[in-house]
Design a protein that fits this description.
Arc Repressor Mutant, subunit A, Tetracycline Repressor, domain 2
Amino acid sequence: MVEVPHPGLREQRKQRTRRALLDAALGLLEHQAFAGLSLRQVTREVGIVPTAFYRHFPDMDALGVQLVEESIGALRRTIRAARDENPEYDVVIERSVQILVRHVHAHRAHFRFIARERSSGVAAVRLAIRRQFTLFASELAADLRRFGLLTHWPLDDRLLLAEIIVNQMISTTEAILETPPDEPDAEQQVIARAERQLHMIVIGLSGWHQAG
């Protein structure tokens, strides 16, 4: 009698293979751009036949989009949770920067991929990155209503502020990636600068809105 694998075991194997494909692609992307990465390269790295790839992703673009979601999406959700825990802006700034630094360290290859593909990658991946950053800003704009003088700001103004903050975080991420891992003092300077920039943005809010 042929033993039929339990459905739960089949799903576990499928998820392991899917994870292996993502990890293999990420490893290969350390040495090349996503546009030059082929399906055969990835499946060869995992040890499966090329046709098996389609059980997990419809095409290579879908794999790239998933890598984007894993990096930016997870960071976005973690930072939003930190905003929910404490409404004090100075605490939120400090925690957000700490989370950003930890997340970039834990997923360095992901964020190197994002940094490379953000402006010059394939269209599907570029759009996925832009979509995640837009969602990041939209969620932040909604949450900013809880912060003191921002309570009565119109949505358009809060969204503009959120975009400034998100752009600052992108800049900080790129600075962390460019800092050599064996130079902790240099990274601390990046962190201190990021916190100072965010504080300056917040301090300037009341004056800007009064002028507007």
